[in-house]
């Protein structure tokens, strides 16, 4: 479906990729754009409505869904990341719990709250922001990778579950994006604006997945190989 004339709700939209989603939806002619964020103070973007939401707090999610009851495109973008010493680090359990609470359970909570709204719309969609980290071994991002792998699996189950109710579910797979979240990580990064444009184009084309940068495309293409990218990453990644 096209976001033109749609009402779009985006979590984690105060900056970075989420804000890029909000601005591009507005540029494409969305009727209304809700920018979900934990703290709305000081947020000022023409034509974009800030909404308080904490994806780890069910009460704030319910309040946001009630306020934005005209939503027909939900973008689950909110996420956190942290660097650790590896999969056997002393803080692996603590950091994994943090990542799962936001990056996986947050998606579940928000989707559950908005699903009764979306299924009543003649055209509705959910975009889940995922990551190529599910196919790329990076020990210093183990908790983040685990949480995104859970979100990917959930997205696949959700798509199958909602297809008969006419809700399009699109999984956005991408590597590092040039936002505040990736500050301090010295790797090639995709442009947030380019990722968002590709994602909305894929949504309009009726696609179920989008690989939004060259590295992610390369990784996905290795999955059926005898030695896939999650065992031996391709050169340059």
Automatic annotation (TrEMBL):
<protein>
    <submittedName>
        <fullName>Short-subunit dehydrogenase</fullName>
    </submittedName>
</protein>
<dbReference type="InterPro" id="IPR020904">
    <property type="entry name" value="Sc_DH/Rdtase_CS"/>
</dbReference>
<dbReference type="GO" id="GO:0016491">
    <property type="term" value="F:oxidoreductase activity"/>
</dbReference>
<comment type="similarity">
    <text>Belongs to the short-chain dehydrogenases/reductases (SDR) family.</text>
</comment>
<keyword id="KW-0560">Oxidoreductase</keyword>
<dbReference type="InterPro" id="IPR036291">
    <property type="entry name" value="NAD(P)-bd_dom_sf"/>
</dbReference>
<dbReference type="Pfam" id="PF00106">
    <property type="entry name" value="adh_short"/>
</dbReference>
<dbReference type="InterPro" id="IPR002347">
    <property type="entry name" value="SDR_fam"/>
</dbReference>
């Amino acid at each position: 479906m096209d976001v033109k004339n749609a009402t779009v709700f985006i979590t984690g939209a105060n900056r970075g990729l989420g804000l890029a989603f909000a601005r591009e939806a507005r540029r494409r002619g969305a009727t209304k754009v809700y920018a979900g964020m934990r703290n709305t103070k000081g947020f000022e973007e023409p034509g974009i409505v800030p909404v308080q939401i904490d994806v780890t707090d069910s009460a704030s999610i319910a309040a946001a869904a009630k306020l934005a009851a005209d939503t027909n495109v939900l973008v689950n973008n909110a996420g956190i990341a942290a660097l650790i010493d590896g999969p056997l680090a002393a803080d692996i359990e603590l950091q994994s719990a943090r990542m799962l609470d936001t990056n996986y359970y947050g998606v579940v909570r928000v989707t559950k709250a908005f699903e009764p709204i979306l299924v009543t719309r003649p055209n509705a969609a959910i975009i889940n922001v995922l990551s190529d980290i599910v196919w790329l071994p990076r020990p210093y991002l183990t908790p983040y990778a685990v949480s995104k792998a859970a979100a990917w699996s959930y997205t696949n189950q959700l798509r199958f579950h909602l297809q008969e109710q006419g809700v399009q579910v699109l999984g956005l797979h991408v590597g590092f994006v040039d936002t505040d979240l990736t500050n301090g990580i010295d790797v090639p990064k995709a442009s947030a604006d380019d990722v968002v444009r590709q994602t909305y184009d894929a949504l309009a084309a009726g696609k179920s997945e989008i690989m939004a940068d060259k590295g992610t495309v390369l990784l996905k293409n290795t999955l059926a190989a005898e030695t896939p990218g999650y065992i031996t990453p391709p050169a340059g990644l």
